[in-house]
Fold this protein.
Amino acid sequence: MIERTVPVGVDEDQLARFVEADYGALVAALSLVCGDPGAAEDAVQEALARALVTMRRGTTIDSLAAWVRVVALNLLRNRWRSLGRERRATRRLGDLTRPEAEGDADELMDLQAAVAELSQRQREAVALYYRLGLSVAETSRAMRVSDGTVKTLLSRARATLAQVLEPAEDDDA
Amino acid sequence: MPDEPFPFDEHLDSRLRAAMHVAAPDVSVSGVLTDVERRARRRQLRVRESIAAGVVVLLGALGVAGYTLTAEPHLAANGPAIRSKPAPATTSTVPVGSPYAQSSGLSAGTDSNRPAPNPPPCPAQQATPSTASGRFCGPDPGPGNGSGPDGTCTGSETAPPCGPGVTPGQYYTYTMPGTCSGLVTFDGKQWVSELPPPSPTADFFVWMRLDPTGSAGWISPSGTVGLAPYAGQTLSGCHQ
C-alpha cells in the first residue's frame, strides 16, 4: 500500500474528479491517435503524475484537464519519435479500436482503418475533436497550434474520411 | 461540442463521432490514483537525485578548481578568476555564479570546512558529456545555434535543437537563458525548468538532451537540471 501524503494546497479531489470524469475518455482518444491503448494510458498517467508534482511545488493549474491533455499528447509524440513506432502503430489501429456506437460495424471499422491512414496531426485533431468532443479552440490549445491549423487538419481529415462514408450516404439517398 | 462556426456537415460529423467513439477503458479511480502517486514519487525522487548530483559535481569541481568552502558567507577563491559563464574549454570548471548553485541548496559558506567529496576522476578523452560518475565529465558545452543573443533560441528556428527534430538521447550544445521564468524553447516546443535560477543571470552554456521517455534536461559543469513540457502552467519564477 502506497502511503499518500498530500501537502496543503494540493487539491486531491481535483485529481480524483479528473480520473472519474475525464481519464477514460482521454485514454480512449489518445488510443485512437497512437493505436496503442497501453501507451496512451501510460502517457496520461505520467502527465497526471507531473501535474501532481507541479501542484505540490505550489504551482496552480487552472484547468487540470487541459494541462494533462497537452502534456500527455507531448509525451506520446516524443515516444513515437524515439521508438519509431508511429507507422507500425498506425497499421495496428484498425485492430485495436472497438466502437461503442451501434450501426454498421463494417463501416465503422472501415472508417477507423481510414483514420489510421491519416497523418499524425490529422489523427490528433480528429481524436480530440470527434472523440473528446472538444471545440476547435480547445483542440488548438491541446495541440498547441492555431485555430486555423486545426480547421485545416480537420477539413482534410474529414475529406479523406468522407470517401469511406460516401457509398453509405449514396445508399441512404 | 464545437462552439465555433465551422462548415461541417452535421450528418457526416455525427457519423464520424459515432465511429470515433472508441470504448473508454474500465477505470478504478483508486487504482489510477495509486499509480499516479507512485509515478509522482518516482519523479520527485529523480529531481532530488539530479539536485544531489549537481551538488556533488559542484563540490567535487570546487576542490579541483582550488576553491574552498569557508564559514564566511561567500566563496573564498584560491583558484582561477571567477567567471559568470563557462567558456569552451577541455577541462571542467565551475562558474561560481552558477545560476543553479543556490537553487540546488548549495549556499556558499553555509557548510563547515569539511573537505568536499571526491568523485572518481573523469576518463581521459571522454567525448560524450556525462554525469554518471557523480561529476561532470566530457567536453564543456559551447553556445547553441539559436538565432538569439549568445545563440539562444527564439522560437523561430527550424533546425534542432531549437527547432523540431531533436534525436532522443543525443546531447546538443545549447545556450540556456538565465531568465527567471525558466522557460526555454527546445525541439520546437516550450519547456519549463524544474529548477529555475535563484535570480536572473547571464546566459550560460549547457548540454541539452531529450530523454527517450519524453522529458528533457541539461547537464553542464555547473549542474544537472530537468525540464518539463510547458503546458501553460503558472511559472514559479526565481527562488531566493
Remarks:
- The mean pLDDT of chain A is 76.
- Residues 66 and 102 of chain A are 30 Å apart (CA to CA).
